[in-house]
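Quick illustration, no need to memorize.
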Amino acid sequence: MQYTVGKHDGLFERQKFRITFKGKDFEIVLLKKDISKETTEIRLLLDGIVQHLVLREGKWCFDHGED
């Protein structure tokens, strides 16, 4: 899997978030520093897989679609 992150990539020093969505728990690690109001794209680690969130027409969506 080319977009997974292992234990030796230094990401465990960053702030971790845990959310529950539709009865399932997810762990999120923000990979982008310096997030501001002008930010239009955020990389994050979602349960070990790198995902991209983009701001489209005032809503945050995963880069692969309109979810």
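The longest strand covers residues 49-56.
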